[in-house]
Specification:
Elements: E1 2-5, E2 11-18, E3 28-34, E4 41-48, H1 51-60, H2 63-76
Antiparallel strand pairs: 1-2, 2-3, 3-4
Length: about 80
């Protein structure tokens, strides 16, 4: 898990969510959860085959990259946030 602050000053946690099932391919997905509660945002196009790879990737992502991905995911869901 990795915390970052969006353009509006809200703290988010980038994390990994496991999909149940027999198929391992793409079992681990990328989610962002607002700290303190709220609806998680799943980045459905980002998936990994192992938890180790997913966690390693998250740890190497910059705050700028996490903010960019959050903005993109919110826009696709029609939840574009205002901010600089």
């Amino acid at each position: 898990m990795k915390q970052f602050v969006d353009d509006e000053g809200l703290v988010w946690v980038a994390s990994v969510k496991e999909r149940p099932g027999e198929d391992y391919k793409g079992r681990f997905g990328f989610v962002m959860i607002p700290e303190g509660g709220g609806s998680e945002v799943e980045l459905e196009d980002v998936r990994w085959n192992s938890l180790n790879t997913a966690e390693r990737t998250l740890l190497t992502m910059s705050s700028k990259e996490l903010k960019r991905r959050l903005h993109s995911a919110l826009g696709r869901k029609g939840r574009v946030r205002t901010g600089s």
